[in-house]
Give the backbone structure.
Amino acid sequence: MTDTPAALREAHHADVSGGWLRPAVFGAMDGLVTNIALIAGVGGGGVSPRNIVLTGTAGLVAGAISMGLGEYTSVRSANEQVAAEVAKERRELERHPEAEARELADAWVARGLPRDLATQVAEAVRRDPEEALRVHVREELGVDPDDQPSPWAAAISSFLFFSIGALIPLLPYLLGATELWLTLAVGGLGLFVAGAVVARFTNRPWWTSGLRQLLLGAAAAGATYLIGSLIGVPGGL
C-alpha cells in the first residue's frame, strides 16, 4: 500500500477552528461533573430520591442555559476583538504601507529568511491589499480573519452536550433506582467513556484520558458528598 504524504491529501488535519469541538467536550464534561457532584452533595445530605431528581433536573436546565449563553458571549466577544484588531491593521496598511511591509519582512528575517527574499515577498504581498491584510493579521495576531469560530455553533454545542452529560447521572433515579451509589457509578462510567472519546481527537491513550476524567469527577463528587454529609437534612426531605 502506498503511503501518500499528508501534504498531498486535501484534509489531513482535524478542524480546530470550527467552534464546536471545544465547547462540546467542555460542555459534556462539565455536565457530568456538575450533576454528579450536585447529586452526591444532596444525596450525602440525606434528601429523598424525589428531591434528588428535582435538584439534578434543575442543575441540568440551569447549567445548560448558562453554558450556552456563556459560550455565545465568550466566542462573540473574542470575534469582535479580532475584528477590531483587523480594522486597526487595515488602517495601518492604508496609512503606512511601507512601514508595514518592512515589519512583515523583519518578522520573516527573524525566522531565518534571507533579508533580500523577505523584502521581495513582503513587497509582492503588499500589492494585493486584502491578501496583505490576511498575511499581516496571521503574522501579528496569530489568527485567520476569514476562519473565526461561530458563536452560535459554540452555544448550541455547549448547551446540547452539557444537557447530555448532566442527564447521565440522573438516569438511574429516572428509571426508578433509589441507591446513590448506582448513580455515582453510572456517572463515573460516563466520565470514563467521555474521556476516552476525547482521546480520539487528541491521539492520547484512551484509558489515560478516561481515567483522568474519572479521577477529576470523583474528587468533585467526594468533596460535595462530604459537605452534604456534614450539613445533612433532617428527616431526609
Remarks:
- The chain has a mean pLDDT of 89.
- Residues 27-226 form one domain.
